Structures are given as C-alpha cells and as structure tokens.
C-alpha cells in the first residue's frame, strides 16, 4: 500500500507540476481545504511526537540523561536542519540515507544474532492471523504500524520534492522522472518493510521465545537484549537505531510541514520557525505526560501518536486517488482502469481498518 500510494503521489507531482496540498487548495472549498490542512498538521505533530519520545528515550539509554531533559534537548535538532538546508537539499537527502542505513544495519545485526525460526515468519507474512481483526489490542498495534509506514504527510512531501529533480518538462522526460522516482521510492519502502519486520522478528525471537511475554516498553527491551542474545553491545545497537530513526523522522516532518503550510494556506515561513512550531506542538504534551506518568506514560503516547497518523491517512489518500484518476489534471499520466481499482481498494481498506478500530474501541 505504501509503495502504491507513494507512486501515485510522485506521479501527481510530476504530471501536474503541483503538489497534493496545492491541488487540494485549488480544487476544494476553503473550509474543506482548511480542514485538510489541520489534519495534515495533526499528522506531522503526531509524527514529531514519536520522534521526541524516541530520541529522548535513546538519550536516556545511551547517556543516562533524564527523560525530561532529553525531551528538551531534542528541540535543538532545528539547528541541524537549518545548517543542512542552507547547503542544499542533497545534503538533507544524504543524511536521511545515512540514518536509514544505520537503522537497517543495527536491526539487521540484531536479527542475525536472535536466530529466529524463519519458516513461521515467512508463513505469517503471507497468511496473517485473523486475530488482528478480532483482537482490539492487536488491531491497535497493527494500525499504529500502518500509520508509521504509510505516513499521510509523506504523500504531500513526495508530491512536492519530486519536482525539485532535474528532468525535461516533456512527456518523455516526465515518464522517465516518474520511473526513476518510483524505483527510488519502492527501494526505500522495501527497506522500511525490512526494518518493521526485523523489529517484530527480534521481539518474538528474543523475548517471547524466552518467556518474557510482558516486554512492551522500549526501556525493558534495551535492558534485556544483550543478556538474552548473549552478545555484548546488542542493547547499544538498539538505542543507536532508535536515535537515528528519531532524527530521520524529524527531517521529513519539518520539510512536510513547510509544504503543507505553503500549499494549503499560502503561508511561507522560514525553516527554523516551521521547526519551532512543529516541535513545540510535540514537546508540550510529552513534557506533561512525562511529568505526570513518567516512562510508562510515554510508552502509551508513542503508540497513540502512530494510530493518529493512520486515522489521518484517509484524508490524504482519497484526494490523491481522485486527482490521479482525473484525466483533465493528469493528461496521459491518468491512472489506468486497473490502477484506479487498486488505488480505490487500498483507500477503502485503510478507511475500513481505521473505522473498525474505532468501533472496537467504543465497544470497550
């Protein structure tokens, strides 16, 4: 689903030479456009919330910095964003690639050390358990994973940054640009699949197999990884991956925030102002939760932030599917009939899963 939706976003940007936020602003009434903008901002704040919590926990684990101060320190990454953007977008991309490479390497090593039983892993990848739909707790986690993978603000982001690439503004040039962007996107999201899978596989192989069924917090996982794997430094690899993940999320959130603000309401602010807005929205609730409930409160807030991303997803997906299926906007790049069916099926599945989660939640 992520590869499909990202592909549609890239094609929309190249074919129309406008991003998803700009098209929503042009196509819909003002109140609809403002509502979609607010939803996108909520998604960006939720993503940044996870980054704040993850980075703060990583700082606590690696350097024993108290969680409260770690949350405040995460606000300083605005300086890194500003520095990189002054040098050019390619430096931002290079940092993102380096961070993703770090995450993949860390979890790859841990998966190798955990020695999982690969046959059940492959079987359940193809034939998932029906318990996901009937068990509210499992569905809640699954929806969180969906939101963390197919992030709504990334659709706005990629429909914009694809236009920054150098390609001929001709039908042939656009076709080549779409093809190359799709290759990049598919590769990145396949790697994301590996990371998500590795996290689940390591958890099952290390904790569940040894009878540690109650490990749910990041801090517990960190403490138990090295002793259970029998490998010194496994816990440190885990914390470094967590820190790299947080910083990567921070960069994409800042860039997406600028794009949705300019596209929906034509308000352009400098990167440091945009970063302060996003980070302020994320830090305030985190500080409150840390002050009241401590570490256990951040665990619940972390998962909730990803579920919020999933709940906001349909508000980006539906306009995207509509626009890419409109020949007047897309011209020869309009979705083929089979692609329209696939895109609408994906949109309905995402909306259906989120609606079912809400039903299960209200049922208690």
Specify the CATH homologous superfamily: Amino acid/polyamine transporter I
How many structural domains? 1
Order of helices and strands: HHHHHHHHHHHHHHHH
- The chain-level mean pLDDT equals 83
Could you name the ranges where pLDDT drops below 50 across 5 or more consecutive residues?
A: none
Assembly context of the chains: single chain
> How far apart are the termini?
29 Å
Number of strands: 0
CATH fold call:
Amino acid/polyamine transporter I
- Architecture, according to CATH? Up-down Bundle
The CATH class label is Mainly Alpha
Which key phrases capture this entry?
mainly alpha, single chain, 364 residues, Amino acid/polyamine transporter I
The gist of it:
This protein has 364 residues and is an all-alpha fold.
Would you mind describing this structure in some detail?
It contains 16 helices and no strands. The radius of gyration is 21 Å and the shape is globular. It is mainly alpha-helical and 364 residues long. 84% of the residues lie in helices and 0% in strands. It has a single domain (2-363), classed as Up-down Bundle (Amino acid/polyamine transporter I). The protein has helices at 2-16, 20-27, 30-63, 67-73, 78-87, 89-114, 118-126, 131-134, 136-149, 152-161, 171-208, 218-229, 234-265, 271-324, 327-330, 337-363. The model has no long low-confidence stretch (mean pLDDT 83).
Summarize the SSE layout with pairings:
Blueprint: H1 2-16, H2 20-27, H3 30-63, H4 67-73, H5 78-87, H6 89-114, H7 118-126, H8 131-134, H9 136-149, H10 152-161, H11 171-208, H12 218-229, H13 234-265, H14 271-324, H15 327-330, H16 337-363
């Amino acid at each position: 689903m992520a590869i499909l939706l990202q592909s549609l976003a890239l094609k929309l940007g190249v074919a129309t030479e406008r991003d998803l936020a700009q098209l929503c602003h042009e196509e819909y009434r003002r109140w609809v456009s403002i509502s979609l903008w607010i939803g996108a901002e909520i998604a960006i704040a939720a993503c940044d919330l996870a980054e704040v919590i993850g980075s703060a926990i990583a700082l606590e684990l690696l350097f024993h910095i108290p969680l409260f101060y770690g949350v405040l320190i995460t606000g300083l990454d605005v300086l890194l964003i500003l520095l990189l953007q002054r040098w050019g977008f390619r430096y931002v991309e290079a940092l993102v690639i380096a961070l993703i490479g770090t995450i993949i390497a860390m979890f790859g090593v841990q998966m190798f050390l955990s020695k999982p039983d690969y046959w059940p892993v492959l079987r359940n990848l193809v034939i998932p358990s029906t318990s996901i739909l009937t068990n509210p707790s499992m569905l809640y986690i699954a929806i969180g994973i969906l939101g963390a993978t197919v992030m709504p603000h990334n659709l706005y982001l990629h429909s914009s940054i694809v236009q920054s690439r150098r390609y001929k503004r001709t039908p042939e040039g656009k076709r080549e640009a779409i093809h190359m962007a799709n290759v990049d996107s598919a590769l990145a999201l396949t790697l994301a699949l590996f990371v998500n899978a590795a996290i689940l596989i390591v958890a099952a192989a290390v904790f569940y197999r040894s009878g540690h069924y109650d490990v749910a917090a990041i801090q517990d996982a960190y403490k138990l990884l090295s002793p259970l794997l029998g490998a010194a430094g496994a816990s440190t690899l885990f914390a470094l991956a967590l820190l790299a993940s947080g910083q990567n999320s921070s960069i994409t959130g800042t860039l997406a925030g600028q794009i949705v603000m300019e596209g929906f309401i034509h308000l352009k602010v400098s990167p440091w102002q945009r970063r302060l807005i996003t980070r302020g929205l994320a830090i305030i609730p985190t500080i409150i939760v840390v002050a009241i409930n401590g570490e256990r409160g951040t665990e619940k807030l972390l998962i909730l932030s990803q579920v919020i991303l999933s709940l906001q997803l349909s508000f980006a997906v539906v306009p995207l599917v509509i626009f890419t299926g409109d020949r007047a906007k897309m011209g020869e790049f309009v979705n083929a009939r089979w692609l329209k069916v696939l895109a609408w099926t994906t949109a309905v599945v995402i909306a259906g899963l989120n609606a079912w989660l809400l039903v299960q939640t209200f049922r208690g």
